[in-house]
Amino acid sequence: MKKLSIFLVAAMLLLLSACGTQKSDQGEKETKSGGSENELVKEGSLTFAMTGQYPPLNFKQDGKLTGFDVEIGTEIAKRMGLEANPVTNPWETIIQGLKANKYDAIIGSMTATPERDKQIDFTEPYYLSGAQIFVAENNKDTQSKEDLKGKTIGVIQASTWKDMAETLTSPDKVKGYPVDVNALQDLALGRLDAVITDKIVGVSAKNEKGLKIEPIGDLLNEDRVSIGVTEGNKDLANKINEALQSMIDDGTYEEISMKWFNTNIMEK
């Protein structure tokens, strides 16, 4: 009888020990999971990703990453008390890389869409883009979308901008182009009355190629280009938002924007 009692006590102690270990392991997992949102991929640095193939927003020059996105990310890191660590990743897997903790954020001109928001979280926008109407600098007759009725509009072939253009003029007055820059060059030469394209694309072409074109009116639709962070990482998103807002408030954001685009791309 005594042997049986000793056996039962030993079995209970073994069971309690196993339960304690399981709870301890679970608690450790919860602690790691709960703290992971505040950890950085590289201690003391903000590691942020982009393709490096989207000038003037992000690209390589003499083997070094540069561009608007890089400067915005670098300034945000500085205001967070961190070193900037920009890295590249192919666009098609850039969200997967963030989810796999390869980097802390995506600062690579990504539009915050409902589909992407299901996978990651976004900060407030760090610039606004979207469909923009451009006209030649000397065109004083076309100053709003209402002035485009019956006018010839250039767009990229098979784009959503083609549908927009057709509602503003007529289908037979919409001319398709393989790339934006060809349409914008024809616009500057007076072969078109207007072009509808992405705002940043048009502004970049104007600055880089010296095209005598101007944006008119408000955006026809709005793309809120934001910084992506891992889902649930509110702490990092809030810190980035605070840094970005301070840049806007003290004029640093506008300085960077003017350097790359000769306009403030946070404004519509």
UniProtKB/TrEMBL annotation:
<dbReference type="GO" id="GO:0030313">
    <property type="term" value="C:cell envelope"/>
</dbReference>
<dbReference type="Pfam" id="PF00497">
    <property type="entry name" value="SBP_bac_3"/>
</dbReference>
<protein>
    <submittedName>
        <fullName>ABC transporter substrate-binding protein</fullName>
    </submittedName>
</protein>
<dbReference type="InterPro" id="IPR018313">
    <property type="entry name" value="SBP_3_CS"/>
</dbReference>
<feature type="domain" description="Solute-binding protein family 3/N-terminal">
    <location>
        <begin position="45"/>
        <end position="264"/>
    </location>
</feature>
<comment type="similarity">
    <text>Belongs to the bacterial solute-binding protein 3 family.</text>
</comment>
<dbReference type="InterPro" id="IPR001638">
    <property type="entry name" value="Solute-binding_3/MltF_N"/>
</dbReference>
<keyword id="KW-0564">Palmitate</keyword>
<keyword id="KW-0449">Lipoprotein</keyword>
<feature type="signal peptide">
    <location>
        <begin position="1"/>
        <end position="23"/>
    </location>
</feature>
<keyword id="KW-0732">Signal</keyword>
